[in-house]
Design a protein that fits this description.
This protein is an all-alpha fold. It is built from nine helices and no strands. The longest helix is centred in the middle third of the chain and has 31 residues.
């Protein structure tokens, strides 16, 4: 067991609390994933991914039948989901079973779980009287969540496609860390810091924290959308799709 801990720590040591490669909360979740690794190392990595989304789904289901007073308990379900999200890839590498299918499932479940959290927070906010924004703002923030991932993956796919058919300078599939490394990680850390604050706040303090969480989520989505529209114009507009031109 000690050898497993040592190998895993050495594998990820250059990412721990290195803000150029990993946010603070990513490092925390990864460290916690290493701690629980002995309990999961023999499980199928995709099953661990399933456990992650199941934890988020359980929180959403419980929220339907309970009032806002159990929000702290629901947050614990999501923290478990986040840790499991880092565990599945770790186990896959340990078992030498990494695959693009696993990466697809992992990424898809990540979006769904965060969506569940947004829904729970929206239900909480809509049940209070002193909301900062019109309810449509919260729905738009929820809608932007999958859209930002869609546009990111769309750009990545087209970048790889253009690299295959073009002899020009190769385009990186992902640029968010290149252009907005610090901002991206800071927004992520602030969102997860808000989640932890909700866990330890009283009922009334949670209002402002959740409002701030939505502002951060909205900002992260908008920044991603504008960045990749700009990058598409910069890198893809001058590359001809020869196949479409033939058609």
């Amino acid at each position: 067991m000690i050898n497993d801990f040592r190998k895993l720590y050495n594998l990820y040591s250059d990412e721990f609390f290195n803000y150029n490669k990993s946010s603070v909360f990513e490092s925390i979740y990864r460290l916690l994933a290493i701690i629980i690794f002995p309990l999961l190392k023999k499980l199928n990595p995709n099953f661990i991914s399933f456990l992650s989304i199941l934890s988020g789904l359980a929180a959403l289901t419980i929220s339907i039948f309970q009032d806002e007073s159990i929000l702290h308990i629901l947050i614990i379900f999501f923290l478990i989901s986040f840790i499991l999200d880092f565990s599945d890839g770790m186990v896959a590498r340990y078992q030498k079973k990494t695959s693009f299918h696993g990466r697809f499932i992992d990424g898809l479940f990540d979006i769904i779980v965060i969506g569940f959290l947004h829904i729970i927070f929206i239900n909480y906010i809509l049940n209070i009287d002193n909301k900062l924004f019109n309810k449509n703002f919260y729905y738009i923030t929820l809608l932007l969540l999958p859209i930002q991932h869609l546009i990111l993956d769309r750009f990545s796919a087209l970048a790889r496609w253009s690299n295959d058919i073009s002899k020009s300078k190769k385009i990186q599939p992902y640029y968010r860390d290149t252009y907005l490394n610090f901002v991206t990680r800071l927004l992520l850390d602030l969102q997860h810091f808000c989640i932890f604050l909700v866990l330890f706040s009283n009922f009334y303090e949670g209002d402002f924290i959740i409002e701030f969480y939505f502002i951060l989520s909205f900002s992260a989505s908008i920044i991603t959308l504008f960045l990749y529209v700009f990058l598409s114009k910069k890198f893809l507009s001058k590359i001809s799709n020869k196949q479409d031109n033939k058609d």
